[in-house]
Amino acid sequence: MNGWNALLEEWNFPAVLIIVMLIFLYWIRKAYGNMHTGFWHWFALFAALILAVFALISPLSYLAKKYLFFAHMVRHVLVLMVIPALFWASVAKHDITPAEIKMEKLLYKPLITWPLFLCVMWLLHVPEVVAKVSSEKYASIDFQAWVAVLSLLAGIWFYFPVLGMRSIRAMHPLRCVAYLVTACIGCSLLGIAIAFSPKLLYPGFTGTDPSDPVSVLVRNVWKIQPRTDQQIAGLIMWVPGCLIYLSVSMSILFSWLRKGDREKAVA
Protein backbone atom coordinates (compact mmCIF):
# COMPACT_ATOMS: atom_id res chain seq x y z
CA MET A 1 0.00 0.00 0.00
CA ASN A 2 1.16 3.54 -0.75
CA GLY A 3 2.54 5.29 2.35
CA TRP A 4 0.33 8.35 1.93
CA ASN A 5 -2.80 6.22 1.57
CA ALA A 6 -1.88 4.16 4.61
CA LEU A 7 -1.29 7.30 6.67
CA LEU A 8 -4.47 9.07 5.58
CA GLU A 9 -6.53 6.06 6.63
CA GLU A 10 -5.31 6.38 10.21
CA TRP A 11 -8.07 8.42 11.81
CA ASN A 12 -8.36 7.44 15.45
CA PHE A 13 -11.56 7.71 17.53
CA PRO A 14 -10.80 6.45 21.06
CA ALA A 15 -13.72 6.47 23.49
CA VAL A 16 -12.08 8.90 25.89
CA LEU A 17 -11.78 11.54 23.16
CA ILE A 18 -15.41 11.08 22.14
CA ILE A 19 -16.32 11.80 25.77
CA VAL A 20 -14.21 14.96 25.68
CA MET A 21 -15.99 16.10 22.51
CA LEU A 22 -19.37 15.52 24.17
CA ILE A 23 -18.22 17.68 27.08
CA PHE A 24 -17.30 20.39 24.56
CA LEU A 25 -20.80 20.18 23.05
CA TYR A 26 -22.31 20.53 26.52
CA TRP A 27 -20.03 23.54 27.08
CA ILE A 28 -21.39 25.14 23.89
CA ARG A 29 -24.97 24.64 25.05
CA LYS A 30 -24.23 25.95 28.55
CA ALA A 31 -21.94 28.88 27.85
CA TYR A 32 -23.06 30.22 24.49
CA GLY A 33 -26.66 31.09 25.05
CA ASN A 34 -26.01 34.60 26.35
CA MET A 35 -26.13 37.80 24.34
CA HIS A 36 -22.53 38.73 25.14
CA THR A 37 -21.10 36.03 22.89
CA GLY A 38 -19.38 37.65 19.92
CA PHE A 39 -17.62 36.57 16.74
CA TRP A 40 -14.20 36.16 18.35
CA HIS A 41 -15.60 33.95 21.10
CA TRP A 42 -17.08 31.63 18.48
CA PHE A 43 -13.87 31.81 16.46
CA ALA A 44 -11.78 30.78 19.47
CA LEU A 45 -14.15 27.93 20.29
CA PHE A 46 -14.17 26.44 16.80
CA ALA A 47 -10.41 26.94 16.46
CA ALA A 48 -10.00 24.93 19.67
CA LEU A 49 -12.28 22.17 18.35
CA ILE A 50 -10.53 21.99 14.97
CA LEU A 51 -7.09 21.86 16.59
CA ALA A 52 -8.31 19.19 19.01
CA VAL A 53 -9.42 17.03 16.08
CA PHE A 54 -6.11 17.66 14.30
CA ALA A 55 -4.03 16.84 17.37
CA LEU A 56 -5.96 13.88 18.78
CA ILE A 57 -7.88 12.19 15.97
CA SER A 58 -6.19 12.98 12.64
CA PRO A 59 -3.22 11.06 11.13
CA LEU A 60 -0.93 13.40 13.09
CA SER A 61 -1.86 11.39 16.17
CA TYR A 62 -0.82 8.18 14.40
CA LEU A 63 2.55 9.66 13.40
CA ALA A 64 3.03 10.78 17.00
CA LYS A 65 2.72 7.24 18.34
CA LYS A 66 5.98 5.82 17.00
CA TYR A 67 7.07 7.39 13.72
CA LEU A 68 7.97 11.04 14.32
CA PHE A 69 8.87 12.57 17.64
CA PHE A 70 8.28 16.06 16.28
CA ALA A 71 4.67 15.01 15.50
CA HIS A 72 4.43 14.00 19.16
CA MET A 73 5.77 17.44 20.08
CA VAL A 74 3.30 19.28 17.83
CA ARG A 75 0.46 17.39 19.47
CA HIS A 76 1.89 18.11 22.92
CA VAL A 77 2.16 21.87 22.24
CA LEU A 78 -1.37 22.04 20.85
CA VAL A 79 -2.96 20.04 23.66
CA LEU A 80 -1.05 21.55 26.58
CA MET A 81 -0.59 25.16 25.45
CA VAL A 82 -2.75 26.26 22.51
CA ILE A 83 -6.14 24.55 22.87
CA PRO A 84 -6.56 25.44 26.59
CA ALA A 85 -5.80 29.12 25.87
CA LEU A 86 -8.38 29.16 23.06
CA PHE A 87 -10.84 27.39 25.35
CA TRP A 88 -10.71 30.22 27.89
CA ALA A 89 -10.61 32.89 25.17
CA SER A 90 -13.92 31.52 23.89
CA VAL A 91 -15.75 32.28 27.14
CA ALA A 92 -17.77 35.47 26.84
CA LYS A 93 -17.91 37.89 29.75
CA HIS A 94 -21.09 37.64 31.77
CA ASP A 95 -22.50 38.42 35.19
CA ILE A 96 -20.86 35.89 37.47
CA THR A 97 -23.13 33.77 39.65
CA PRO A 98 -22.51 32.75 43.28
CA ALA A 99 -21.93 29.17 42.13
CA GLU A 100 -19.24 30.35 39.70
CA ILE A 101 -17.56 32.38 42.45
CA LYS A 102 -17.36 29.23 44.59
CA MET A 103 -15.92 27.32 41.65
CA GLU A 104 -13.32 30.03 41.06
CA LYS A 105 -12.25 29.88 44.71
CA LEU A 106 -11.82 26.13 44.33
CA LEU A 107 -9.80 26.31 41.09
CA TYR A 108 -7.78 29.47 41.71
CA LYS A 109 -4.53 27.86 42.90
CA PRO A 110 -1.65 29.50 40.98
CA LEU A 111 0.93 28.14 43.43
CA ILE A 112 -0.28 24.65 42.49
CA THR A 113 -1.12 25.06 38.80
CA TRP A 114 2.24 26.58 37.83
CA PRO A 115 4.52 23.81 39.20
CA LEU A 116 2.00 21.12 38.23
CA PHE A 117 1.99 22.36 34.64
CA LEU A 118 5.78 22.39 34.39
CA CYS A 119 5.97 18.94 36.00
CA VAL A 120 3.55 17.57 33.40
CA MET A 121 5.47 19.25 30.59
CA TRP A 122 8.83 17.87 31.68
CA LEU A 123 7.60 14.47 32.87
CA LEU A 124 5.98 13.71 29.51
CA HIS A 125 9.38 14.16 27.84
CA VAL A 126 11.45 11.99 30.13
CA PRO A 127 12.71 9.31 27.69
CA GLU A 128 11.57 6.42 29.90
CA VAL A 129 8.08 7.91 30.21
CA VAL A 130 7.81 8.48 26.46
CA ALA A 131 8.88 4.87 25.88
CA LYS A 132 6.20 3.60 28.28
CA VAL A 133 3.46 5.76 26.79
CA SER A 134 4.37 4.66 23.24
CA SER A 135 4.73 0.98 24.19
CA GLU A 136 2.58 -1.58 22.40
CA LYS A 137 1.90 -3.01 25.86
CA TYR A 138 -0.64 -0.23 26.48
CA ALA A 139 -2.14 -0.18 22.99
CA SER A 140 -5.34 -1.92 24.15
CA ILE A 141 -6.23 0.97 26.50
CA ASP A 142 -4.90 3.68 24.14
CA PHE A 143 -2.66 5.09 26.85
CA GLN A 144 -1.60 7.97 24.61
CA ALA A 145 -5.20 9.19 24.36
CA TRP A 146 -5.52 9.22 28.15
CA VAL A 147 -2.23 11.08 28.50
CA ALA A 148 -3.43 13.63 25.92
CA VAL A 149 -6.68 14.22 27.80
CA LEU A 150 -4.87 14.61 31.14
CA SER A 151 -2.47 17.07 29.45
CA LEU A 152 -5.45 19.03 28.14
CA LEU A 153 -6.95 19.25 31.63
CA ALA A 154 -3.59 20.34 33.07
CA GLY A 155 -3.36 23.08 30.42
CA ILE A 156 -6.91 24.29 31.11
CA TRP A 157 -6.21 24.50 34.83
CA PHE A 158 -2.85 26.21 34.23
CA TYR A 159 -4.44 29.01 32.20
CA PHE A 160 -7.36 29.44 34.60
CA PRO A 161 -5.69 32.02 36.91
CA VAL A 162 -4.78 34.26 33.96
CA LEU A 163 -7.58 33.69 31.43
CA GLY A 164 -10.43 31.96 33.22
CA MET A 165 -11.10 34.25 36.18
CA ARG A 166 -14.29 36.34 36.01
CA SER A 167 -14.52 37.69 39.57
CA ILE A 168 -12.64 40.57 41.20
CA ARG A 169 -10.12 38.05 42.57
CA ALA A 170 -8.43 37.77 39.19
CA MET A 171 -4.64 38.10 39.29
CA HIS A 172 -3.10 41.48 38.52
CA PRO A 173 -1.99 41.64 34.85
CA LEU A 174 1.68 41.98 35.80
CA ARG A 175 1.45 38.87 37.96
CA CYS A 176 -0.21 37.10 35.03
CA VAL A 177 2.71 38.06 32.80
CA ALA A 178 5.24 36.84 35.38
CA TYR A 179 3.27 33.59 35.69
CA LEU A 180 3.41 33.00 31.93
CA VAL A 181 6.96 34.23 31.27
CA THR A 182 8.44 31.97 33.93
CA ALA A 183 6.56 29.06 32.37
CA CYS A 184 8.06 30.13 29.04
CA ILE A 185 11.54 29.78 30.57
CA GLY A 186 10.76 26.22 31.63
CA CYS A 187 9.44 25.46 28.15
CA SER A 188 12.55 26.92 26.51
CA LEU A 189 14.96 24.97 28.71
CA LEU A 190 13.19 21.72 27.85
CA GLY A 191 13.25 22.49 24.13
CA ILE A 192 16.95 23.39 24.22
CA ALA A 193 17.79 20.21 26.15
CA ILE A 194 16.02 18.07 23.54
CA ALA A 195 17.29 19.92 20.45
CA PHE A 196 20.94 19.97 21.49
CA SER A 197 21.20 16.63 23.24
CA PRO A 198 24.36 14.78 22.08
CA LYS A 199 22.49 11.48 21.93
CA LEU A 200 19.16 10.17 20.67
CA LEU A 201 16.79 10.37 23.61
CA TYR A 202 13.78 8.60 22.14
CA PRO A 203 14.79 5.32 20.43
CA GLY A 204 11.15 4.32 20.01
CA PHE A 205 10.92 6.81 17.14
CA THR A 206 14.07 5.67 15.32
CA GLY A 207 12.99 2.40 13.70
CA THR A 208 12.64 1.66 10.00
CA ASP A 209 10.41 -1.23 8.97
CA PRO A 210 10.52 -1.99 5.21
CA SER A 211 7.16 -3.76 5.49
CA ASP A 212 5.47 -0.70 7.03
CA PRO A 213 4.42 1.80 4.32
CA VAL A 214 4.21 4.70 6.78
CA SER A 215 7.72 3.99 8.07
CA VAL A 216 9.01 3.88 4.48
CA LEU A 217 7.21 7.16 3.76
CA VAL A 218 8.83 8.89 6.74
CA ARG A 219 12.39 7.61 6.31
CA ASN A 220 12.74 7.10 2.55
CA VAL A 221 10.34 9.59 0.97
CA TRP A 222 10.34 12.46 3.48
CA LYS A 223 13.92 11.52 4.44
CA ILE A 224 13.46 12.54 8.07
CA GLN A 225 16.13 10.80 10.10
CA PRO A 226 15.97 10.32 13.90
CA ARG A 227 18.56 13.00 14.72
CA THR A 228 16.79 15.61 12.58
CA ASP A 229 13.44 14.53 14.00
CA GLN A 230 14.61 15.11 17.57
CA GLN A 231 16.14 18.49 16.74
CA ILE A 232 12.93 19.69 15.06
CA ALA A 233 10.93 18.53 18.09
CA GLY A 234 13.18 20.47 20.46
CA LEU A 235 12.94 23.61 18.34
CA ILE A 236 9.13 23.32 18.26
CA MET A 237 9.04 23.22 22.05
CA TRP A 238 11.59 26.02 22.37
CA VAL A 239 10.46 28.66 19.84
CA PRO A 240 6.74 28.27 19.00
CA GLY A 241 6.06 26.98 22.51
CA CYS A 242 7.58 30.06 24.12
CA LEU A 243 5.93 32.41 21.61
CA ILE A 244 2.53 31.13 22.74
CA TYR A 245 3.12 32.31 26.31
CA LEU A 246 4.60 35.60 25.15
CA SER A 247 1.61 36.21 22.85
CA VAL A 248 -0.86 35.61 25.68
CA SER A 249 1.24 37.86 27.94
CA MET A 250 1.20 40.69 25.39
CA SER A 251 -2.54 40.29 24.94
CA ILE A 252 -3.06 40.63 28.70
CA LEU A 253 -0.81 43.70 28.87
CA PHE A 254 -2.53 45.43 25.95
CA SER A 255 -5.97 44.77 27.47
CA TRP A 256 -4.78 46.20 30.80
CA LEU A 257 -3.33 49.33 29.15
CA ARG A 258 -6.48 49.90 27.06
CA LYS A 259 -8.60 49.57 30.18
CA GLY A 260 -6.43 52.18 31.92
CA ASP A 261 -6.76 54.57 28.98
CA ARG A 262 -10.56 54.20 28.99
CA GLU A 263 -10.72 54.88 32.73
CA LYS A 264 -8.61 58.02 32.29
CA ALA A 265 -10.84 59.19 29.44
CA VAL A 266 -13.96 58.73 31.57
CA ALA A 267 -12.36 60.57 34.50
Can you describe what's shown?
The protein has 267 residues and is an all-alpha fold. It has one domain (3-266). The protein has 12 helices and no strands. It is a multi-pass membrane protein. InterPro entries: Caa3_assmbl_CtaG-rel. The chain crosses the membrane at residues 12-28, 40-63, 69-91, 111-131, 143-164, 176-196, 235-257. It holds the Pfam family Caa3_CtaG.
What's the order of the H and E elements? HHHHHHHHHHHH
User: Which regions are unreliable across 5 or more consecutive residues at pLDDT < 50?
Assistant: none
- Counting DSSP E segments of at least 2 residues, the number of strands comes to 0
**Helix content class:** over 70%
Taken from the alpha-carbon principal axes, the silhouette is globular
Global structural class = mainly alpha
Largest sheet: none
Q: What gyration radius follows from the Cα positions, in whole Å?
A: 20 Å
Global mean pLDDT? 84
Domain count, please report it: 1
> Count of helical segments?
12
What percentage of the residues does DSSP assign to strands (E)? under 5%
First-residue to last-residue Cα separation: 71 Å
Quick structural gist:
With 267 residues, this protein is mainly alpha-helical. It is built from 12 helices and no strands. The chain is globular.
